[in-house]
Amino acid sequence: MAGEDRGTPTAADQTEIEWQFDALDLRPVERWVTALPANVDSGLKEPITVTALAKPVRRLSDRYLDTEDWRIGRAGYVLRTRRRGQGTEVTLKDSRPAEASGLRRRLEVTEALGPDGVEALGATGPVGRRVRAVAGHRALHQVIEVRTRRRAFALRVSGEEAAELAMDETVISARPGQRPVHLNRVEVEVAPPWVDTLAPLVASLRDSCGLRPATLSKFEAGLLALGMEVPGPPDLGDTEVNQDSTVGEVALAVIRRHLGVLLAREPGTRLGEDIEDLHQMRVATRRLRAALDFFADVLPPRSRSMSSELAWMAEMLGHVRDLDVQIEHIEGIGIWSATWHRLVGTGDSPVDELLSVLAGDRERARLILLESLDSPRWDRLVAGLTSMVTHRQLRLPAGARQRATAVLPDLVENRHRAVVKAARRAGRSGAAGDFHRLRIRCKRLRYSLEFTSGVYGGRTERFTRRLALLQDTLGLMQDADVATIRLWSLATGSDPEGRPREMSAEAAFFAGAMAEQYRAHSEQLLGGMPKRLKLLEGNQWERLQSHMDQRRGVQEQPVLQPPGSALRALPDPSAALPVSVPAVPDVQAALASWPVPVWGTSQIDRNTDVSDPGLDSSSSTTPGIDPFGIPDGR
pTM for this structure? Predict the structure, then answer.
């Protein structure tokens, strides 16, 4: 159980489940263990009998490691090496808090450590690949050292080891001049199937021996005792604005807010355990770029180059994100796999094969993303943005001193005119490319309204929510365009770089069928687009425009002219695919004439940023239809 060498962990092995208790004295626990066997009311027909078998006493030497900037800790994980006898292992655990009962459920992966230490960890092991992704090129160093004398007992039920009870006498090494920290800790690590069964026994142990649920892990207790802590997000400055703020103050507050999200999401994006981290980091890059362009005339000239650098990172994140969305959509039609196995009985289904191909593409895109995050180019961009918003003597153009209420109406209305123009063009042509441009302009307008929400006391939020619904639909249509081109390339036997790829005829047929379903659903969504576009010139917009004009003030005349050009158009994701992908004339023509493609609502909403204030995320999605007619259940 605890600390044993598991080899390559399975999905079940990767979850550590244990109760942790602090003890004033371990002798009551010793007496409790010697009193076993004990009968436990497990809720079954008859009580079960639990016996204890003593294990040899072990002496453990643990070193906890992190980078100088605490990348592993900020990602929510703890890295530990443990020396036992002649061998050393390295373990990565997440740092999620314990429940009130002292029970912790957390990721735990372990691999053997060679004589060259953590510096020689490979990129394929369960620990090595995660550590390399998070730490990048940063060196690891020791944070604290913990030494433990462990007396352990195997708790058995009908001859099967169901749990391990460990009594730990722990010493946390101190810095020179400090006294070491002593802990008495009782840990009961239990195999997943036995959690509920053994819970009454653990409660008896706790109550009989005067134990207290441990709210801190040994690592956390050591940091607290030694006056150390994992740093939180950097203090970038004030993010609050009001009706009296200047436009320069609004600009810097908006940039600080989304830069904070970007920095907070980077460790999780590197780790790759939760795809939502990557999604929110991508959204933050987009909003930052939009803010730099929207407020360009009141920011230092260097901000313009930062905008193009953010576009580079958004593209790197986008390659992975697009594959996440496609994989999720295909995983949602698992009925195909079930039907295949029922009819054929052997071999991978076309769904499984296609998912395997897309997963390979995603892994390659993720490696490129990690290389980008480890590059000096990314470090310079983050340093430049941070310096700009934290510089106390930052010199802004004269126009930045204007009251925001005098300047913002012209900037917002400029964005609105661009949206209306794009909507009319898309409505006339029905072309996918025109709807893609409309989506970009809707995004710019939506972001500009979010940026100004605090100035207008939240009066922009109602129109923004409606605009988000339109943008979601347009976004799903763009997802379908990207997916169709990728799926068609798979069906015709080439990878994204245009190289031949072997795929079974069944999987190629399935990929082609999926592409057709995307196209058909796009046409369905296009049919409802004229009604959705009425929002852009409806009563809600007119009321919002009137409110902004009233707040402008009779005495104040804006001196800041609307920027000559709005956001540069984001590259069409289909254009981002390598040019070597074989062109298919009839499909390309179909794409050009499609009424915006979309299918289903992804569980990972591509537009909603849960960190944005004032947005009701539950209302920013469009009910979708599974391409095979299966309701998405949401």
Answer: 0.75
